[in-house]
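Class, look over these structure tokens:
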Amino acid sequence: MNLLNIRRAELSGIPYLNNALDFALTRINALWSVEHNVDGTHRSTWQTATYSAGHFTASSGTWGVDAADVHLRYEIRGKTMTVAFSVLATDVGDTPTDLRILIPGGYTAAAPTRNCISTVDAGGTPQFGMALVAAGDTKIYLYRDATGTTTWTATSGDDTSVAGQLTFEIL
């Protein structure tokens, strides 16, 4: 006889406590099975996003990203997605306001979210930039600095990099 059955036997004369216990245990069991495997490990796992040069664009010009430049992984828990990215040694054509990564897996952001990221523009000093998603959009926007107004420098020397993580609600 397990602890649950012992408790039920003890409470058999008090129906409302039995009902409350059943409700609580059912709810705990539902949450446990959604988030965890039987052995306690998390059910959701990180996935590596499929590389395609077309998944990396810019507000103007081009963003030259080779497969070797990219470490892009994501995890989904319910309706929440976390994307971790490191896109190093890239080239930027023109002087775009933002660089863009397609949200992995064909998902769409449900609400706007932003976070600080690390950026290196044209081989310069690392600084804080900003990553954001907009509600109803399928891209992560990467800004050179936290104001979101400084343009990226056109480069051809594999010397522009971005790295960070962003967690947001998905549709």
In short: The chain has two helices and ten strands. Strands lie at 47-48, 56-58, 63-64, 70-77, 80-92, 98-102, 113-120, 127-133, 139-143, 160-169. The two ends are 44 Å apart (CA to CA).
